[in-house]
Structures are given as structure tokens and as C-alpha cells.
Write a structure and sequence with these properties.
By secondary structure, the protein is an alpha/beta fold. Helices cover 44% and strands 12% of the residues. Helix 6 links the parallel strand 5 and strand 6. This is DALD3 protein.
């Protein structure tokens, strides 16, 4: 069997299979201290539960180092230790397989996904100024869209931005959101929804008389429908919804997005009042303060169009965004400008007059975007975020900030730029083909840490970040939208520690070139991981800081 790129999941499956037990017994180590002695561990407690007396048959233990597979790491030794069964990887071969050329075309990803997801962000519907709480849900939807697309999923973003809703702050934060004017197709859809409401037993037309809001055209009894259908997870206070033209326009936009989604199996779709619609997942990304209103819209859509797609509606709810001691409500644009000013001041403190040069304008803008995106996205979406706007909480030094991540990405760019200029001067020979590199030179603890904790699991990290839970009866879902930010922060910390300790570009002596070239190949792969992960956040890599 050919050997391809190793993966964590495939290696764990092979290890579990070697012991002949269905339970997941093995774990991957990640801490520097444990990685000095082992790479995978089957803990003593897990072995005691799976085998009589915790004793694994000797033939199973001896078979572990001979495990092979296209995505299985090369294993060196398996031995009993006080902590349990410990396995070490053949590290030079692992470096070669992860950093070297793959033999032939890569196999198709086992977890490749297709389909369509509509991400609906109600925060963009209002014409009023955006607040930080709205910005959180928009940034989350934007990031989730990028993650899903990277996994082969088609994504539609709703609502389209109109002239009245094209906030500058979205452009400044590099949020890629579609724009459009609606048009006759939406007008036709609104008319169809009105006709459906007129035939709906749950709805009653409103006469435009004294005491009636002028724009209300129907009253719809949501509670009775929820009870009749046995819907789970909705607010018990859902009762009567006053339907306006704006309400129907919102549904029409959603309906149009669904109709644009590709249909994988049209024959499997239940009947719908809108025959051109397709089956796709609909996720309402909403802040907790607007969750009730979105549930109302959800139920209304189910009433008007009992198709497969409306039954697949889910709500991804963002926790509150608390602003410490604001003198007055702060808008998203004010929040951006404040963070930009703080980032400029922090850069001047660190870099002096250099940061005041015009060439740094784009650098400051990118650092500001990174700071805000990490501030909003590195916390689990259901948890509260606290924004401290009084004190300068933005720093170029903090290890958990977006600026720190961008700084380390720029350090890598500087490293390779310095190497290239040295090659042009004749100080070093060019980097040889990867097949000629000697990866047995990579013996420093931090080098294995970078490969084993970041390069190896990175594809699976992106898959997990884009993972949406399977269909369930409830309407709330959770997503791992903080995964990429946390991964980048931890990668930056471990890379920074390694880079501060190891002099990569050493003296130009031929006997040192093998190690230098192997390290450059490793750090080139680290740079690629930085770039790919930052792309899911719409952050361009910086070439200087």
C-alpha cells in the first residue's frame, strides 16, 4: 500500500485496531514534557477497563510497531510504562513524509463534503448602526463560510447588502459579504408568500383601521402551530406574530438563497409550496438579544413552506458582548476606529518613528483587523465577550492577540527574505530539492513540537472547525468557530519560543548546511500553515512588522 500524508485520526484508528478493542484507548500527546518520552499513550485506566487486569496480550503489543497504512505515522516502539502503553514515532521518517514530496497525486480526502449551507445573519437587516454585538455574529458567519468552503461545501450568505446597508466597517474588517438590490424576483416571491398567508389557517388578515399598525398585513398564530407539529426548542412565549412587508421580504431573500443551492437528490425532497426550492441546511447566526425574533421568522417560514429545507433550520446563537463602562452606546465603526488608534499607539511605542511612516498604514490596518477578529472569534460563540475599551487592551506583545499571531507570521517572512538575499549574495547555496534534505538533523525539541502538534493535525483542525452537528430535534447548534484562532495563538507561542532559542540561519559553513536546510523546509511548512489558517479569517500575511 502506498504511503501518503500521515494523519492523527488514521494513526489512532490503526492503534486502536491493533489492540482488538472497539473502544478508543489511545490519545495523542501534545505537551513538551510528555513528548520527550512518548507520542501516543493508551492510559493505564483505559487498559484496565478493556483488558482483564489491564494486561494487553504481548502479541498485540509487539504488533504495534509494524502498523502500516497510507495515513499512518511510522511507529518505532511500543512499550509498557507506569502510565500505560507508550508509543514513539520514527521521527526522521515522519519529517520526511510530512515535509517531503508525496508520491503521486494525493488521495481524495476521506472526509470530503459536499452540499449547500445558507448562512443567515439577521444583524445585517436593520438600517440602524451596527453594534459590537452585531459585529460578532457577522464575523462568525464570515469565518464559518470560509471554513465550510475550504471543505468543499457551497455557501450562500443572506441578506445581500443594499446601498443603505453597506457599512464601511464591513469593508474595513475585510468581511466578504454579497450585495444586491433584490429586484423583480424577490417581489414575485413576496407576492407568493402573501398568497400562501391568505390560505393559511394560522393567519388572519389585518384591516388597516384605528389602532392597527399601518405596515401589519397579517396576524399569525405561531404557538398553535408549534404545538401541533411537536417542535422542540422554541421559546414558550412564542404566540402571535404581526407580519409586515419587511417580514415577508426577509423570507423571500432566504427562499431565493435556498433556490440557488444545488440539489443532490431532487427525488428525495418532500413536497413544497415552492417547487424550485432545494434541500440544504439553513443556519441563522444570531446574537442572543435577537434570538426570539429569529425564532418567530423560523416558525413563520415553516408554516408557509413545509419543505425539507425549512425543517433543517438551525440557530447558532452568539453570547452577549459586554462593553465595560461605556459613556454611551458604541457603534461598530467607533469600536474599529478606537482599536485602530490603540494599535497605532502600541506600534509607535514598540517600533518608534518607523511606525509613523506611510508604508505602515496598511500594516496598522491589518493588525487592527487581526486584533478585532481574534477578540471576537477566539472565544466559544455561546460565551460572553467583554470588551475593555477604556484601557489600551490592544498590544503588540500579548501572546493571545491577533497582533502577536501576525507578528510571528511576519518573522517567518523576514527569515525567508533574509535567506533569499543571502543566497543572491552567494553567502548560502540555494535550498536543495526536498528529496535531497536530511531530516535526521532535526533533533531539537521544538522542531518535533511544531511538526507533531501543528503540521500533522492541521487538515483535521480545519475539518473540526467546519464541523456542524448532525440533524437533531432541537433548533440550537454549536460550532467550533474558536478553533482556528486558538490554534494560531498556540502555534505562534510555540514557534516564537523555538525561534527565540534556535539560530536558524547559521554561519555559512558547509557542514552546517544540512541542518539549516532541513529547518528552513520545516519552517516553510509552518509558514504555509499560518497563511492557510489566516485565509479563513480573511487576513493577508504580513511581510514586515
Amino acid at each position: 500500500m502506498g504511503e501518503g500524508r500521515p494523519g492523527v485520526a488514521a494513526t489512532l484508528r490503526a492503534l486502536n485496531g491493533a489492540l482488538g478493542r472497539p473502544a478508543a484507548l489511545w490519545v495523542k500527546e501534545s505537551g513538551a514534557r510528555n513528548l520527550r518520552h512518548r507520542d501516543f499513550l493508551a492510559p493505564r485506566a483505559a487498559l484496565s477497563a478493556a483488558f482483564p487486569g489491564g494486561q494487553v496480550p504481548p502479541e498485540a503489543v509487539s504488533a504495534v510497531p509494524s502498523l502500516r497504512g497510507p495515513a499512518v505515522l511510522p511507529l518505532r516502539v511500543c512499550r509498557q510504562t507506569p502510565a500505560g502503553l507508550a508509543v514513539q514515532v520514527r521521527r526522521p521518517e515522519a519529517f520526511q513524509r510530512l515535509l517531503g514530496p508525496l508520491p503521486g497525486p494525493p488521495p481524495p480526502a476521506a472526509e470530503a463534503r459536499t452540499g449547500c449551507v445558507v448562512l443567515h445573519c439577521p444583524a445585517l437587516r436593520g438600517a440602524a448602526a451596527l453594534r459590537p454585538r452585531h459585529l460578532r455574529s457577522v464575523l462568525l458567519a464570515d469565518h464559518l463560510a470560509q471554513l465550510l468552503r475550504a471543505q468543499g461545501v457551497s455557501v450562500r450568505l443572506v441578506p445581500a447588502l443594499t446601498e443603505e446597508r453597506r457599512w464601511d466597517v464591513l469593508r474595513q474588517l475585510r468581511i466578504c459579504w454579497p450585495s444586491g438590490s433584490g429586484g423583480s424576483s424577490l417581489s414575485d416571491a413576496v407576492s407568493a408568500l402573501k398568497a400562501a398567508l391568505g390560505q393559511c389557517p394560522c393567519a388572519a388578515a389585518c384591516e388597516q383601521g384605528p389602532g392597527t399598525a399601518e405596515s401589519v398585513i397579517f396576524k399569525v398564530h405561531l404557538k398553535s402551530f408549534v404545538e401541533q407539529q411537536g417542535l422542540v426548542g422554541y421559546d414558550p412565549n412564542l404566540d402571535v406574530l404581526l407580519v409586515t412587508e419587511r417580514t415577508l421580504w426577509s423570507l423571500a431573500e432566504l427562499q431565493e438563497a435556498v433556490m440557488d443551492c444545488p440539489v443532490s437528490d431532487p427525488q428525495a425532497l418532500p413536497a413544497s409550496r415552492f417547487p424550485n426550492s432545494s434541500c440544504c441546511s439553513i443556519i441563522h447566526v444570531v446574537n442572543c438579544e435577537e434570538e426570539f425574533q429569529q425564532q418567530q421568522l423560523d416558525v413563520l417560514w415553516r408554516i408557509l413552506d413545509p419543505g425539507a429545507h425549512t425543517a433543517l433550520q438551525k440557530h447558532l446563537v452568539c453570547g452577549p458582548v459586554k462593553v465595560t463602562k461605556p459613556s454611551s452606546p458604541i457603534g461598530a465603526d467607533q469600536y474599529f476606529q478606537l482599536r485602530k488608534r490603540q494599535m497605532y499607539e502600541a506600534s509607535v511605542i514598540k517600533y518608534g518613528e518607523l511606525a509613523q511612516d506611510e508604508a505602515w498604514t496598511e500594516v496598522i490596518d491589518t493588525l487592527t483587523v487581526a486584533a478585532i477578529r481574534f477578540e471576537m472569534l477566539s472565544t466559544a460563540h455561546r460565551s460572553q465577550i467583554t470588551l475593555d475599551l477604556e484601557n489600551n487592551s490592544i498590544s503588540t506583545k500579548g501572546t493571545k492577540s491577533g497582533a502577536f499571531v501576525m507578528y510571528n507570521c511576519a518573522r517567518l517572512a523576514t527569515l525567508f527574505d533574509t535567506f533569499q538575499r543571502a543566497v543572491e549574495r552567494g553567502t548560502y547555496p540555494p535550498l536543495p530539492p526536498v528529496s535531497e534534505l536530511n531530516f535526521s538533523c532535526l533533533r531539537e525539541e521544538g522542531e518535533w513540537l511544531l511538526l507533531f502538534n501543528y503540521l500533522l493535525p492541521f487538515p483535521e483542525v480545519l475539518q473540526q472547525a467546519a464541523q456542524l452537528p448532525p440533524p437533531s430535534k432541537g433548533i440550537r447548534i454549536t460550532a467550533n468557530t474558536e478553533t482556528v484562532c486558538k490554534f494560531l495563538i498556540q502555534l505562534s507561542m510555540d514557534f516564537s519560543s523555538y525561534y527565540n532559542r534556535v539560530h536558524v540561519l547559521g554561519e555559512p559553513f558547509p557542514h552546517l548546511f544540512d541542518q539549516m536546510f532541513a529547518r528552513l523546509q520545516l519552517l516553510g511548512a509552518v509558514r504555509d500553515v499560518f497563511h492557510s489558517a489566516l485565509a479563513t479569517l480573511h487576513l493577508p500575511p504580513l511581510s514586515q512588522i
